[in-house]
Amino acid sequence: MNSVSLAVVHPSFERLKRSGKWLHLAAGLLILTHALSHAHRTESSPVYFWCQLIISIDILILVLAGRDALVQLPVVNLFFRVVEIAFFLGIGLLMLLEGKTGIGVVHLCLSMAYSYLFYCERNLRSEELLSFHHTGVTIPGLPENRWFLWADINSVEVHYDSIHIRTSGRADLHFELRRNLEFAELDQIHEFCRHYLGS
User: Which of the residues 25, 38, 77, 115 has an alpha carbon 20 to 30 A from that of 143?
Assistant: First the structure.
């Protein structure tokens, strides 16, 4: 028996994919607002203003023109996420050095939130895979995939269009499949379950 991997619809991943566009939009607008607030200040550096303006316009163009590009091109998505992290971290540190603690802390919190998003999004793929192995089952999850030994699994119910796994920790995991299983795939999963679960 070889390992079997199934493409599943994972609700958390789907929510993250849908929210990514709006989070980039929010970051782009915040950066643009910050740039415009420094446009007429005499003590503000023109280089600082233009860097912020160009970054914000880049992000906004990507969000507005790219539509699904952020999901289809994960490297581009991650690059812009790193830019957003660097921006919020830099502004936060700059505000703290200027003695503006409240604004500085808010920007540092934004930097940490976008860092966590980056950590989660680095695993995003077009398909999330649930895999059956000889040693256990890998289930997609955020921020990391989860691994269950066969000893930790009480039951597995497999249908042509969905799969339901109950663990010994009483977790009920239900996933819709992205495509219906073929008979051979279904039989192979049943063979895993018969062999390792005795069912």
Answer: 25
d(CA 155, CA 168): 9
Evaluate whether 115 touches 85 at the Cβ level (below 8 Å): yes
Per-residue pLDDT of the chain (199 residues; tens, 9 = 90+): 577 787 787 776 667 666 777 777 888 888 888 888 877 777 666 777 777 788 888 778 777 766 566 566 677 778 878 888 888 888 888 888 888 888 889 889 988 988 887 887 776 655 678 888 888 888 887 667 788 888 888 888 888 888 888 888 777 888 888 888 888 888 888 887 888 787 6
Whether residue 118 contacts residue 85, with contact meaning beta carbons closer than 8 Å, is answered with yes
**Which one-letter amino acid corresponds to residue 81?**
R
Report whether the peptide linkage leading into residue 74 is cis, meaning its omega lies within 30 degrees of zero.
no
Q: Taking the CB of residue 144, how many other CB atoms lie within 10 A of it?
A: 10
> Which helix (H) or strand (E) covers residue 5, if one does?
strand 4-9
Counting every residue, how long is the chain? 199
Please name the residues in contact with 178: beta carbons below 8 A apart, sequence gap of 6 or more.
Answer: 7, 8, 9, 127
Residue 162's DSSP bridge partners are 176
Using CA atoms, how far apart are residues 103 and 141, in angstroms rounded to an integer?
A: 33
CA-to-CA distance for 93 and 107, rounded, in angstroms?
8
Query: And the tokens for 172?
Result: 């009920």
Record the tokens describing residue 73, joined without a space. 């091109």
Helices (H) and strands (E) in the chain, counts: 6, 7
